[in-house]
Predict the structure.
Amino acid sequence: MENGAAPTAKPVIVAIDGPSGTGKSSTSKAVAAQLGLSYLDTGAQYRAITWWMVTNGIDLEDPTAIAAVAGKPEIVSGTDPAAPAITVDGVDVAGPIRTQEVTSKVSAVSAVPEVRARITELQRSLAAGAANGIVVEGRDIGTTVLPDADLKIFLTASPEARAARRSGELKGADVAATREALIKRDAADSSRKTSPLAKAGDAVEVDTTELTLAQVIECVVTLVEEKRAGK
Ligand code: DC
């Protein structure tokens, strides 16, 4: 160092994509907390806009109706990994966005290009404003939202492992039914025309099937640290 000052870490942008049940949220939150970075759950944003559409009686079978109101709700996401928060028009929706009804409808809403354009803009502005850097988790972060991210991770796991984890989170929901619902949602998310769930060409794929959450976190923390060290 020319003046002897400690080097200041450059903000690091980490994109973590993958289907549901791969441990994306738990991993992303823990990595952000451990490294002092902000955290953004983009699935929560799509769930929040879906919750607003359901609450306002929008016909979710009709993409034109969804597109027409995509700009109406004001969605505000907190970026503290210790206390992820989300509001719609000032209402705390952290609980209501996790209901079965929202989960079953979110793929239809998030496939509408006007919805994606709106939410993508919010995501980019939050990422740009994160002073220390940010971990952003979703489906299209490395491919579309932040294609210049410093590090891109794509998490995978077998359908059985994903269903077992999700039914555990849902407090003992039927594993076979959860597996079917997951496969259906992944197929919808992967086959939509606008920015589908996909692995970026330069993403590091981590198969979490045989790994504990602690091992996945350690693996991603190491990858971020190596990136920061310029390896
Ligand atoms: O991660 P999650 O299960 O909470 O995401 C809910 C839905 O949101 C998911 O089925 C697809 C959609 N989604 C998306 O289309 N793009 C993202 N970046 C994140 C989520």
Remarks:
- The first strand starts at residue 12 and ends at 17.
- The domain at 13-225 is CATH 3.40.50.300 (Rossmann fold).
- The CA atoms of residues 46 and 162 lie 20 Å apart.
- DSSP finds nine helices and eight strands in the chain.
